[in-house]
Amino acid sequence: NAGVTQTPKFRILKIGQSMTLQCTQDMNHNYMYWYRQDPGMGLKLIYYSVGAGITDKGEVPNGYNVSRSTTEDFPLRLELAAPSQTSVYFCASSYSLAYNEQFFGPGTRLTVL
Amino acid sequence: KQEVTQIPAALSVPEGENLVLNCSFTDSAIYNLQWFRQDPGKGLTSLLLIQSSQREQTSGRLNASLDKSSGRSTLYIAASQPGDSATYLCAVYAGGTSYGKLTFGQGTILTVHP
Fold this sequence. Notes:
By secondary structure, chain A is mainly β.
């Protein structure tokens, strides 16, 4: 049971490039989330999903897109990368909203130059 | 809008000391509160989750309490060890239409020196 896995661990992008951050969980959780963490700050929610085929915006969705075609995978797409998107990105999942203990992946450290 | 504050921002203690980390939140209508540990360059590890109906949770040397009416939670670490050095984050979940969103504090950086 690997829990929540994320790839890549690190990435450097040039302004205007695009990339996809991968997230996979093997706990059969319906709920999945993408957060970003800026230095010295708490985490902020980018997008979330309540099940395959259902996604919605969080607090800071601008510049990102998501899809959820399977229960296991929840990729985050960055289009036209900007320096403001330099951050550490965490994917998380939970079994239910009623209990909502969230389990986090190891993160992807992204730098946009 | 829910805001979560953690005090102190940083704490340095000698090994063996008992310590308390504080978390406060502005809207007491929460569903649960979760404490996490984050090691440098790593992800978040869930330590304890307290449901709104509970007053405290314990795991080993960790004890977390919740007082919804005053908007406060504390994480008590007994007999601290150098391996406890990390950033500790608390996060609250409001339930209802907040779709599982956790609102995080900025964290307390704990250093336990031998």
